[in-house]
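$ run holo --ligand "magnesium ion" --emit tokens
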Amino acid sequence: MERYLVRSDEKISLKDIDPGEIGKYKGEKDDGLERLGELNQELEQLQELLYAQHKHRVLIVLQGMDTSGKDGVIRHVFEGVNPQGVRVASFKVPTAEELDHDYLWRIHKQTPRKGEIVIFNRSHYEDVLVVRVHELVPEKVWKKRYDQIKEFERQLVEEGTIILKFFLHIDLEEQKERLQARLDDPTKRWKFNPGDLKERARWDEYIEAYEDAINKTSTDEAPWYIVPSNKKWYRNLVIANILVDALNRLDMEYPQPAEDLTGIVID
Ligand code: AMP
Ligand code: MG
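-- output --
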């Protein structure tokens, strides 16, 4: 899975990365789903430990074009985890109050506490993506944000937060099918936003903005992963794998009781 990692010294180009890739699971979707089931269980146990130990904080950033599957990842990768220790923060068009503050204000408020996993459904990266593409602030303002974001994330990491950032990589054709499905399927229609078509028309500009964001802010402490996401099951599998590996590396332990419990008898 490390091949999806963007190293800090690397400069990626999204056109070189196949969004339809399914790794070693060639045609074997069922194997992939079975493996995801195992990872779901492993994640459940690791999250329990994370919560009990109350030491580390985990921040997961999900970014991607409309329909790339951010909601699907939240639903499928975190299936079964204890809702008590996991929280989703979704970042929409900023409110008037949020716009009155600096762009990181609303973000910092949502960062995880000890023992918690927080999933960002969109994030501070919107402030160098949609904001850049639509020139919502002048270039000289957004250009400074890459360094600001790196510094912000570095500070979170130094204080004990693990940060994993995922770009869900789909292509134009796949987005077309998914938007069409939103139109055709009455249970998906509520997700169809005519505004998404305007964003789709600016696909190339978004790709450029994403490449810049990923290349400028993938660091050793807060890396980006580019996740092939045309196949939903593979996308979920990749993210679950990377997350489980990262949590295993923490070498967590259940906390010791505050006092010696030997000899206690419960009548
Ligand atoms: P959705 O994720 O489909 O609910 O849509 C949320 C919308 O909010 C997307 O179109 C985002 O681009 C937009 N959005 C999120 N953050 C910002 C931001 N900082 N400035 C402007 N638009 C934003
Ligand atoms: Mg949307």
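-- notes --
The mean pLDDT is 96.
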